[in-house]
Specification:
single chain, alpha+beta, 4-stranded antiparallel β-sheet
């Protein structure tokens, strides 16, 4: 009788890897749109220790309807990144 191979648990992503996954997802979701001043805002490990919550902030050009002009508007997105696979499992809007 053969014993099954021992599979070591995968290591948790470090925070830099989680931020990289979130940044790539943001750029994919907004492909073709200019994201200015992209910055890391917040990092948090979930209570269960299985995922990272990464908040990214960026500026977007917004045209106003009442006055013909363009202004910058700051947006924030929270990404939930699986701590083992690095897959983004959720994206939410964070109010400033």
């Amino acid at each position: 009788m053969k014993t099954p191979p021992i599979v070591a648990p995968r290591e948790m992503l470090n925070v830099k890897e989680a931020v990289s996954s979130a940044t790539k997802a943001l750029q994919d979701f907004f492909a073709g749109k200019e994201l200015l001043n992209l910055e890391l805002e917040e990092v948090e490990l979930t209570e269960d220790g299985k995922s990272w919550l990464i908040t990214l902030g960026f500026d977007r050009l917004v045209e106003t309807l009442s006055i013909p002009m363009t202004r910058l508007e700051r947006k924030y997105k929270i990404f939930k990144v699986d701590g083992v696979t690095g897959k983004v499992t959720a994206m939410k809007i964070r109010k400033p």
